[in-house]
Amino acid sequence: MDDQSELLKSVNEIRDLIRLMAEPAIAARDKKFRDELRKLVGSSKRKASSILLMDGSRTQTEIRNETAINQGDLSTLVKRLSERKLLSGDGKKPKLAISIPSNFFEGDDTDD
Q1: What's the CA gap between 56 and 53, in Å, rounded?
Q2: CB contact set of 19 (below 8 Å; sequence gap of 6+)
Q3: Could you read off the pLDDT of 4-20 as tens digits, one per residue?
Q4: Gyration radius of the chain's alpha carbons
Q5: Percent of the chain beyond pLDDT 90?
Q6: Closest by alpha carbon to 86, among 97, 99, 94?
Q7: Residue 71, domain member (yes or no)
Q8: How far apart are CA 100 and CA 51, in angstroms?
Q9: Is residue 110 part of a domain?
Q10: Dihedral sign from CA coordinates of 44, 45, 50, 55
């Protein structure tokens, strides 16, 4: 492994540790938004999976392909997220405006 790869690996590990330590403070700061997010998603695995992919790097089509969510459901979800200020950007490549951990929706085990 070259020096740059080793450095990048170390930086990523440090970032992950900082996120873990900061999670309680982030959760407190974003409580209202996180509560609203849970209400919008309900118990839908597809909606939860879709939300977790909303990092600004994927189009709605790519998210649909990865999660098998219905086009209308995703479009409506993006619209509602945007109305509640839970998205940044224009919605074509949805990006969640708040930070959530990858296990945020655990325990939601039903689907549409």
Answers
A1: 8
A2: 99, 101
A3: 999 999 999 998 888 77
A4: 16
A5: 62
A6: 97
A7: yes
A8: 10
A9: no
A10: positive
